[in-house]
Amino acid sequence: MTDNDNISEIRRSVQALCAEFPGAYWREKDSARAYPGEFVDALTKAGFLAALIPESYGGSGLKLDDAAVIMEEIQAAGCNGASAHAQMYIMNTLLKYGSEEQKQEYLPRIATGELRLQAFGVSEPTSGTDTLSLRTVAVRDGDEYVINGQKIWTSRAEYSDLMMLLARTTPREDVASKTEGLSIFLVDMRKVVGNGMTIKPIRTMMNHSTTEVFFDDMRIPASALIGEEGKGFRYILSGMNAERILIAAECIGDAKWFIKKATDYGSERNVFGRAIAQNQGVQFPIARCYAQMCAAELMVHHAAQVSDAGGNPGAEANMAKLLASEASWAAADMCVQTHGGFGFAEEYDVERKFREARLYTVAPISTNLILSYLAEHVLGLPRSY
Ligand SMILES: Cc1cc2nc3c(=O)[nH]c(=O)nc-3n(C[C@H](O)[C@H](O)[C@H](O)COP(=O)(O)OP(=O)(O)OC[C@H]3O[C@@H](n4cnc5c(N)ncnc54)[C@H](O)[C@@H]3O)c2cc1C
Prior knowledge:
The chain has helices at residues 5-18, 23-32, 37-45, 64-76, 85-97, 100-112, 232-268, 280-308, 314-339, 350-357, 367-378, and strands at residues 117-121, 137-141, 144-152, 162-168, 182-188, 197-202, 210-221, 225-226, 270-271, 274-275. The chain is of the alpha+beta class.
């Protein structure tokens, strides 16, 4: 990819910031399963997490394609953007469908870092992939909504002030299409944690600060509703496309990190009196991963550009996520293989990045579901589920 001056400047600034957070920092956080608050604060202070907020609300008003470069560079530097990436993509729903009053109330404070918008409550224990069968309900009661139900995998909920929450406001049997009757709420968590909302951390194979969230007669003001009641599913789809594009960009960053790490190690490590990467059996897998990463990178930027031009990047965002997550996972596997036994030693960071990279063929949408989308919506094949 050839960069324009603006993109090159973004890359340099992110690289400079990330240099302050070396492998030792991430190893320590990983081992304690601790939230990298200092890193998130530094990103916020530098304005990177407000990249997509328009200048009129205190952000930098960058395009999605620029934001993708920020996320890519974070990962390529060996850092973990999963600690903060939601703020970028959740924003899309608020920007597109929030009222002027909601934008004035929240965006400038998110831009300064006074408020964190890091939690996205969609998945539930009985409805992961099948979002439309979710069971969390919001019932209007005067000037409030009363919410009951449960979310799972709500990442960063303990470290966020705001949560974008998807709940059913009209029972499924009372709507013509199952995509109707769902609504989106911007929940001020500071007012409800311990008062209707309970958060329980889930320990996972990597440091991801993910949780279960329980709603027990949780009351929120009716003004928390985004847009019109019942149209929430449509509203979050645009946020989900942004999410897929930004996470695909993170995968490209991961793939670049693994390829660089393998290239350096393969050139330095001597076995049988010569660098291991002199063997084609070692260098070809690295070269193949590089080609796979470059092809996926083109699709990521294409998807972002379709979105920036005002188009619907549904197919492109899905393809970007599919190709990039497979490219990063292939590179992760190759990197461990290139390092031999040292790929398993914590101090090399390879095993940590390997665990982190594994997530993205599963979440935020699994490979199978992307293939189903392409088969049905792009190729016109019969719906399989
Ligand atoms: C660490 C982590 C962080 C997450 N963060 C968030 C978050 O912040 N907010 C949030 O809302 N969610 C989050 N998620 C949830 C994530 O989006 C879901 O895990 C993902 O959508 C898959 O849902 P599921 O786990 O219920 O899998 P299931 O829906 O149970 O699927 C299991 C497997 O079956 C396959 N499958 C299911 N149906 C079909 C079908 N019809 N055809 C073919 N294959 C099928 C899937 O592809 C998958 O491989 C997170 C998950 C993890 C692990």
